[in-house]
Specification:
37% of the residues lie in helices and 21% in strands. By secondary structure, it is an alpha+beta fold.
Length: 491
């Protein structure tokens, strides 16, 4: 008994030390948000801005996996439209077509010693799912301006940024502004199918010309609300990296035959078991540097309970990872995800197929590779009758951009200057953007769209009733105006 009492006393002492340390660290947490002044506004004609964006949405610049289905004339018509609607841009900036349909604008700076900056957006949009056309409140390519919003495919992804950047440059030119640095506007035409003919070609062209980019900004993050309990202020999530993308076909081989006498080794059954094993044995969750930085940035802004957990990841990291598994959007930030997306087997209802195939799409955390996941799948399936075949379209996760230094500070200050009281945090983008194609040209590649997106808005991305509020769009133009001016501070 004396030994037990001594042991309990020691454990109690250790617990008291841990609790004291957690409380002390929590109390000492300080906000990392920089103090900035509200950026001065100029009057903008909201109706004219909305009308031009609506008109741009009417061009069906759709990307299909089958390149032959792309309509190049829709893109060329959009190019002609941009030329007429932004005469100042057309006169002051050079414009060239790259990769047949992508556009690269160049606004030369007054100081040739300064490195350049690049703002990216993409012209293409995803198709409208067949059969859902009548579900839209306004036709998907109407560009209607109604009920305080601009409606149509591309209103959020990504003609909204393309037009907002051009509007910002046009208005700054009218005021006589001239950047000290050279500014590129890069508008790819195939982002929705990988960007290899668009942004990749633009990046290769800039590399051949020896361009140095001190700053790159593309879509990816946004202004969000309700990201964490206890934080009422809007949160601007700035993508500093993005996950990789790879798909594998699982090809199961079994014995075919008549369904009235089903064989014991059926391909469909073998495939179902393989898919089930993959779902049951997911890759381990972990915090990447970007996600850890996000949690540590948000910790001082939260209520005491969340603040204590996020401010003491040395103790609570396993708890955070466990709870993230219950929310798909959170789980995607801490885990390489696996998702069966396509199943193919059989030719007739009374014929047992001799082969069956499932496609599994995987989004790779930084640090995980396609080869790692191929080994993982083979180990988990553990069945030589199921072959794992990598599909051709894949990309590794991007490296993470700098979280310190003038580029990130300028972006953060601009966000807080245009959207006061906003909390700015780094973020890992679960999807893919054109930004990754510029990673060899700059150490400061960021992903942020100056739009407020709630849960309903996020469902509209690639979905039905895509729209952007007119007021939100005007704010986006203000943001790009401020950013273009603030980037003059780049060293």
């Amino acid at each position: 008994m004396p030994l037990v009492r001594r042991l309990l006393a020691v454990l109690g002492g250790i617990l008291a030390i841990v609790v004291t340390l957690v409380v002390a660290r929590t109390a000492l947490l300080e906000s990392t948000q920089r103090s900035v002044s509200v950026f001065p506004r100029v009057p903008l004609e909201a109706n004219a801005l909305a009308s031009r964006l609506g008109a741009a949405l009417r061009f069906p610049t759709i990307s299909h996996l089958e390149e032959s289905r792309r309509d190049p004339e829709a893109f060329r018509a959009l190019h002609a439209f941009l030329k007429t609607q932004f005469p100042g841009v057309d006169a002051a900036l050079s414009r060239e077509t790259i990769g047949e349909l992508s556009l690269l604008y160049r606004w030369p700076g007054s100081d040739p010693a300064k490195p350049a900056a690049l703002l990216a957006a993409h012209q293409d949009v995803v198709p409208v799912e067949p059969g859902t056309e009548t579900d839209w409140e306004h036709p998907p390519f109407s560009g209607a301006v109604a009920d305080g919003a601009i409606w149509g495919r591309g209103a959020l992804d990504d003609k909204v940024n393309l037009l907002a950047q051009l509007e910002a440059v046009e208005s700054l030119l009218a005021e006589g502004f001239e950047p000290a640095y050279t500014l590129y506007l890069a508008f790819g035409h195939d982002e929705e199918v990988g960007g290899n003919a668009g942004a990749a070609a633009i990046a290769a062209t800039l590399a051949e010309r020896g361009a140095r980019l001190a700053f790159v900004l593309d879509e990816g993050g946004a202004l969000t609300a309700g990201l964490l309990p206890g934080i009422e202020a809007p949160i601007a999530v700035v993508g500093v990296a993005e996950k990789g993308y790879v798909s594998f076909d699982l090809v199961a081989s079994g014995t075919g035959g008549h369904s009235s006498m089903p064989p014991r080794e059926q391909a469909v059954v073998l495939l179902a078991k393989a898919v089930t094993r993959i779902d049951a044995q997911r890759p381990e969750a972990r915090l990447t540097p970007a996600t850890r930085a996000m949690l540590e940035t948000l910790a001082p802004e939260a209520g005491f309970g969340v603040r204590a957990v996020l401010g003491n990841l040395w103790l609570f990291e396993p708890l955070v990872l466990r709870f993230a598994a219950f929310e798909p959007s959170a789980d995607a930030l801490v885990r390489t995800t696996t998702a069966p997306t396509m199943l193919r087997a059989g030719i007739k209802d009374n014929v047992v197929p001799g082969a069956a195939t499932a496609t599994v799409n995987i989004r790779l955390l930084p640090g995980d590779t396609a080869a790692d996941l191929e080994r993982h799948l083979v180990r988990v399936i553990d069945d030589p009758r199921v072959e794992v075949v990598r599909r051709l379209r894949f990309r590794e996760a991007s490296r993470e951009s700098a979280l310190e230094g003038p580029a990130f500070e300028i972006l953060s200050d601009t966000i807080r200057g245009v959207f006061p009281e906003t909390i700015v945090t780094p973020y890992l983008v679960a999807g893919g953007t054109d930004a990754r194609h510029y990673r060899d040209l700059s150490d400061a590649v960021y992903r942020f769209a100056p739009l407020s997106l709630d849960r309903e808005d996020r469902r509209r991305l690639h979905g039905t009733n895509e729209r952007v509020g007119v007021k939100d769009y005007v704010e986006a133009v203000h943001f790009y105006r401020a950013l273009i001016q603030n980037l003059d501070a780049l060293p």
